[in-house]
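Continuing the batch. This is chain 6 of the set; chains 1 through 5 are on the previous pages. Same settings as before, nothing changed between runs. Recording input and output for traceability.
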Amino acid sequence: MLLAVAFGWFLSISVRMVYPALLPHLRDAYGLTLATAGLLLTVLWVAYACGQLPGGILADWVGERLLLIASSLLAATMLALVVLANSALVLFAATALFGLGTALYGVSRFTILNEIYPEQIGTATGVTLAAGDLGNAIMPPTAGFVAVAVTWQYSFGIAVPLFVLAAIGLWSTLPRPESRTTTLRESLALDGVVSTLLQPAVLRGTVLLMLWSVIMQAFIGFYPTYLIDEKGLATQLSTVLFGAFFALGILMKPIAGRAYDRVGVQLPLLAIMSTTCLALVALPFVHDVWLLVPLTALASSILGFETIVISDLTRRLPDGTRGTNLGALRTVYIGLGALSPVLFGAVADQGYFDEAFLGVAGLAGVVMLIVLVSVDY
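Output for chain 6:
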């Protein structure tokens, strides 16, 4: 079951990370500016955010098994539309539909892990998220090489049958749920969601995840393009560094999850974000490839952040409506974070690429301050 859920997440996140790797090719194919390219990424992540709450409601009502399978099949169908897009308008629309399809996977993978591993959710979540980073380490560089060797459409197309395989794996391994005790009416009753999200610990975690999402979306959205345009790296080398960033998350996320299970939230988050802040501050001043490698490694520490915070939040949410509450929470922080690529791209279009990264480093400092003063963590 863990392998099946992890493989589905492997695809769901890694194909979304193919977009930044192929951004130079998409810009050439459709004549996109940096700001418009950033808007494409924003559309992808806003659509993903908008699907979180419906996904959470459906998880509470029909169960995680059906939803995870449906998400994989929908993702395969919508990704096929991306491949067939013959204009920028169709590309944007198909990307939005793909984001909505993968959104159904977002909440259910957390809630089903909480049911299977209630005492070790941090470790189980870390392992599952690490599978996503394995995909992020493999898929973007592979997509970059395929795009150079053949065409960018094949880079997306190879993932379509893999999504179908994921659906088959989930259907074969996940047990059919017992009769649901939560009705559709109870799932749609959102009156308790606001009060839950306003609890101090939940609100603080949501704010931390929102800031983390802003930093992550800005960084991963433009890091390959930044390496090409500002550091003069070849496309293949930039995608390899991008893949290496996520490859380190394969280790970082299980370690972060285990650290949460053993010592709690505050110390691991401080270690993660201080390392990330240092890397982002140094990035504009480094131009040698041999120095970009360790900086990329330091920046990858941010990949353990969500594992800790989302594990803590999942434990705090009430049974029966955990999916609905988690869906609402993820809609907030992913949706707000999704605005950063278009803003980041607009700043970069004005010739302030380096300054944009320094601004993101400043946000990392704000996160450190919030964690530091949260004494009950």
